[in-house]
């Protein structure tokens, strides 16, 4: 290369790098300031851009269930939201540059999600805009809008590429195992204030239960999520048949250990959701008429006898997880669980009366920070019930209410359309998918069914649960290279050989 050509490039690099280095050096005087964190994050993002162009799709799969936050963006959204937007943008750019880069289109799912996205955007505009606390607005709720739209965009990003068959097992495993990162939030709190700066990268909400119950039940939300991610992976990788394989008895022992660890979160839902998943997977593995059925029933009875006999000796957080069963537990655990149930029932009685006015145009997610502050202060002084604050924020702890109230019947109709279209995708891949992906496809449809039942009848929050459903369907399409169809094999009957011409009968 000509020396005269190298000089302008070196001068240009120096002109760009030196001011940037000086700016970062000045900002690092206060390293934990939001401006510093944001700028450093954007610089790192720029440096990693070539890697992101190559690996954006695998990164989205790996971080879909991870607990990390995009600390360099306003409002610190979840990393998967930022990766979904970036991955979708890069996929569209690749499609514009090369016709070989094609999305794995499923028309029914695409139409349903586009309709749902339109409902969300129209509601957002009609109900006062996006509102962003991180941008100084008095109206809050933007993060929930971004989470819903991120789940929709994330589906298209997941289906922008097919996962290579040799990596299918690995990517499917990382998709679920990344949820184990939630334990880091609990560990940071246990480590003490010296490590609290790490909450810039992880959600502090995971450790909230540990903070609030440190002197009573001592609940560990991160540990519960770690356990759930672990036994979801085992059910996907081995299936119920593989877990109960006596030749690999260690699998059942690990599965039981993970289940026990999950009880330290104190969530009744952890048992209910696992029971629903176990039932649906048992059905889709077609084990009802096999020898395994009585074995599983016997194991369930033994576990029930153990719980009945030793429930009162278990840690209080574990006893709280068992309070929905008709057994004797510590009064403190019973009272804590009963209290949350009572205020939910009281809140639902109030919310139901507000549903008719939001049937056609939903309430949206925007709420006033001033109203929230006044309600909070009134609750502290005993003027309002505990659930009044939840009424303002819109987290009704009920799947149907968190859908119908914010987005009305149009949003509910689009969501039902999406669920039906998504279930057909999972069903066809389960029936006609590659035998190598049999366990994965079986788990995906079983988990989809279990989460849907749980969302409708037990607990749900639409802005958080939508990414579960779009993630499962998007992963299924990416793993299977689209939607599978039955293979039609034509049975060709051999034609009878014609007799020699000289032996043929002459026509009359």
Key structural traits:
2 strands; globular; 64% helix; disordered C terminus; 20 helices; mainly alpha; 508 residues; two-stranded antiparallel sheet
State the low-pLDDT regions, or none. 489-508
Number of helices, where a helix is a run of at least 4 consecutive DSSP H or I residues: 20
Portion in helices: 55-70%
Q: Biggest β-sheet, characterized?
A: 2 strands, antiparallel
Order of helices and strands: HHHHHEHHHHHHHHHHEHHHHH
How far apart are the first and last residues' alpha carbons, in Å? 92 Å
Total E-strand runs: 2
Number of domains: 1
Shape type: globular
Overall pLDDT score: 84
How are the strands of the largest sheet arranged? 1-2
Backbone CA Rg:
27 Å
What portion of the residues fall into strands of 2 or more residues?
A: under 5%
Q: Which structural class matches the secondary elements?
A: mainly alpha
Report on this model:
The relative contact order is 0.10. The protein is mainly α. The longest helix is centred in the last third of the chain and has 32 residues, at 401-432. The chain has a two-stranded antiparallel ribbon with strand order 1-2. The model is unreliable at 489-508 (pLDDT under 50). Helix 7 (168-177) runs antiparallel to helix 10 (221-243), helix 10 (221-243) crosses helix 19 and helix 18 (401-432) packs antiparallel against helix 19. The chain has one domain (97-480). The protein contains 20 helices and two strands.
